[in-house]
Write a structure and sequence with these properties.
heterodimer; A: alpha/beta; Rossmann fold; five-stranded parallel β-sheet; two-stranded antiparallel ribbon; 10 helices; 44% helix; 12% strand; B: alpha/beta; seven-stranded mixed β-sheet; five-stranded mixed β-sheet; 13 helices; globular
Amino acid sequence: MNKLELMKTANEVRKGIITAVHSAKCGHPGGSLSAADIYTYLFFEEMNVDPADPKKADRDRFVLSKGHTAPGYYSTLANRGFFPVEDLTTLRKTGSYLQGHPDMKHIPGVDMSSGSLGQGISAAVGMAISAKISGDSYRVYTLLGDGEIQEGQVWEASMLAAHRKLDNLVVIVDNNNLQIDGPITEVNSPYPIDKKFEAFNFHVINIDGHDFDAIDAAFKEARETKGQPTAIIAKTIKGKDVSFMENQAAWHGAAPNDEQYAVAMADLEKVGEALCQK
Amino acid sequence: MSEVKKIATRESYGNALAELGKEHEDVIVLDADLAAATKTGVFKKAFPERHIDCGIAECNMISVAAGIATTGKVPFASSFAMFAAGRAFEQVRNSIGYPKLNVKIGATHAGISVGEDGATHQCNEDIALMRTIPGMVVINPADDVEAKAAVKAAYEHVGPVYLRFGRLAVPVINDNEDYKFEIGKAVTLREGTDVTIIATGLPVSEALGAAEKLAADGISAEVINIHTIKPLDEEAVIKAAAKTGKIVTVEEHSIIGGLGSAVCDVVAQKAPAKVLKIGINDVYGESGPAKELVKKYGLDADSIYEKVKAFV
């Protein structure tokens, strides 16, 4: 996919997020929107996955460590063809396979159940270790929130990942600077994030998480990095592309009402139309 | 009387893993800096490339094991019961239990028989914690033979299994040719008609000693070994309740939430009978030689005998 196609796809992913969360009347749009470009790049460009064979043995693995941004994950998987986009409106509803947090038992394309923060990165480390043991070539990706790295387990996992030289592992931090209680700098600052991962012996790349050129370059650099895991610190905007959600902690875990839904979709249509002019 | 062979079930765990490792390439063993104590060192020596020492980070180890299981290998995550079931409870629940991953948890140093390390390391709550997790199999073997068989059965079972082992060497009581281990199947070790003693783990051999003493007093005690606490052999409990009408449970675990509670759940709902629960009475342990603690906390043959006699 070229850059424009990726941008258009990310725009569709964002529409799916808003539609899903609006339908559910709850959920986590802010961090889903901030990570939409990363999700899109991973599933449409970077990872070896096959919607027709979601469990194929040599597939690259993805673990959504910040499991609450499932709407972004699901919208990406749906747009990639793992399940119907129409099913996004069943999010969080009784009987739906689209659980509030990722459920590997029932959702095609989900490699690990997650949601309790800090645990997903450890599972990703386990997958990467397993690949090293049996000489498998698949790569493992895990997406974390910047608030999530307050969890001590993240650093237990990071220490082990670097110790075992897991160069088949890429940790991405969605650095949108906001958590439920407010700015991460006010709650319990994890900064400097890059220096922390460097100190844990990661190869660290700082990027603008909405710039597909930068995202592309970072994942290519990660592939070329040998003998240590890579951490990509992606600076992002929480609520990206929805005017009233951008940089608002209140939209971490709240759903738009019908009126807000219309505004949000109009915002995203506008972004989409601008892309079509390009 | 000939000398009874004694082996700690943690030793059995390590030895069984080494054997399993020979037969199955997909066996992976994880430790959190306690390989020497959990006795997985034997496996580590034989298969260093399949042994992952996670360092002192049990929560991470449990979730790493979950990740390994998603790729089709069979991880045995090892630590002390206190840390595997206690500290990492939520990881076991959410990373292993909820996705029903094929992880085996080898929890050694369970109960007060940890001895001198004292209360911080004596986990009397793990069975209670683990049996509340949907789909978790909970096994508490009584001796070397049973422990080794349990490790093999756990490997063959697809799904999460919690295996509980002890630090103290315990008598080998199942060393006979017709011994058969089946997950969820109780083993009747002694027939009796007046009272049924249902025991698990370390106190099983003590319960046999108590039954012997009771017999001398003319009390016929049936002794049932329940190695699998979940799924519980309900049929065996119901049968015992109907047969003797008096059940005594014995476990090296809190009387809250362990074998005694599991048995009471069945008895109260399906076969009303009088039950006496023997175990750790809602208190913390303390430092001391393991054998002295077993006696002090009422889990030795003499203490069991006294309590059963008064109960009958």
